[in-house]
UniProtKB/TrEMBL annotation:
PROSITE patterns per the UniProt record, alphabetical: DEHYDRATASE_SER_THR
Lineage: Bacteria, Pseudomonadati, Thermodesulfobacteriota, Desulfovibrionia, Desulfovibrionales
Protein name: Threonine synthase
EC top class named in words: lyase
Tryptophan synthase beta chain-like PALP domain boundaries: 93-406
InterPro entries: Ser/Thr_deHydtase_PyrdxlP-BS, Thr_synthase-like, Threonine_Synthase, TrpB-like_PALP, TrpB-like_PALP_sf
Cofactor(s) the protein requires to work: pyridoxal 5'-phosphate
Organism: Desulfocurvibacter africanus subsp. africanus str. Walvis Bay
Amino acid sequence: MATLFPLHRGRMEYFCLGCGARHGIDQLLYTCPECGGVFLLEDLDFDKLRETPGEGWREIFDARAGEKRAFLRGIFRFYEITAPVLESEDIICLGEGNTPIVEASPALQQRLGGQRMAYKNDGQNPSASFKDRGMACAYSYLKALIRKHKWDSVLTICASTGDTSAAAALYSAYVGGAIRTVVLLPQGKVTPQQLAQPLGSGAVVMEIPGVFDDCMKVVEHLADNYRVALLNSKNAWRILGQESYAFEVAQWYDWDMAGKCVFVPIGNAGNVTAIMGGFLKLHRLGIINELPRVFGVQSHHADPVYRYYNESDPTKRTYQPVKVTPSVAQAAMIGNPVSFPRVKHFVDQYTAIGGRDAFQVLQVTEQAIMEAMLLANRHGHIADTQGGECLAGLMTAMDQKLISKDELAVLDATAHMLKFIGFQEMYFQNNFPPEYGVSPDPAMTNAPLPVLSMQDKQSLTPEEFTLKAAETVASRLGVERKR
Ligand SMILES: N[C@@H](CCOP(=O)(O)O)C(=O)O
């Protein structure tokens, strides 16, 4: 019974956060035709889910952990609270979600003065970032529309700092058929690894001089005026898929969120929106009894959300986009997050239940981000620069006494470290362009050590070469000979 599909079918609608207008999901909408506001998707029958007690839902979701069928695997094991309007035949699962939570080693915990922490490695998703969670849902919905309307051609489009484009191109390549994808990237501001991803998936890659915010404006104009399907998190289906991060954190800790804090970097703000929205859904259904505290983290080079919430008097807060400067947390280098209205919407609900401290935003320096990432990785983690940003945020929270040692901090490593490996290289080789404001601590750098020369290789016999190389390694490391 527990794994039956579906246990609940919903009636979903777009709901505008600007004017409250509601629209049917039969058409692709990103912003409200009436006021231009952003949407969330709501299941009008969500409260019917309360007929099953929280304990019942916990059992159902736990029972699906070993599920093999695509439509109940990955993010879709939470089908009823995600997108309960999709048909099983439309659901795409490329193995997204279910990413590991890895607790800090005792040595790292000690370095943090005993603070409990863990990373959730969302870089272990198929395209190596959390965006796959959202794309699985957005593409499943698109597939449903294509089937229903018998469309023979759909052009999907997104602006990206590198992760969204990789995910969009991957899911598009998998679905194929009517779908073609184009991605718009800020020229020179996406890492070589991230640029290689959509190219390899066969997407059309276009580069625009400027930063992400410039690309986003072009994509928004195209979505408003041309027949294209926008795949950024402005597309509310993306948000639904990304809620699975919250569901998985809760499930991993046996649905007990007491004493847990979640740290998440804020860029375009889709992820922090989804995480708060996800926890609120679980709370509404009694699946969790407490909300974890959420700490958003931003670099001082791209911090519009921090600036907004840094004003303690809510009546004096005014939102101002910022002009970004280069950031190692390049995925979050965004000065005008499209989901800002969604953040406000959920922060109000979140703090109404969890109190003022349930949501806070921290600002960290570029130097702190780099050093936190290196510290984490020297202790066996695979944090990317955004994961470093979260750890820098945790350290800031500790310094400011915003968190206690008994609380467990769950940090979002949003992408795989290998996507951002160039920043580690710049740190190790001390060649960061000055705009980043990062200078290496020699104790944190590393470099390969050459052993013997090519001339040695050519002049020695293979046996002599092995022996001399082994002796050089042993003597450099001060290893004692066996007696
Ligand atoms: N960091 C993002 C920026 C776009 O965010 P989205 O969630 O709105 O698609 C990226 O990887 O492109």
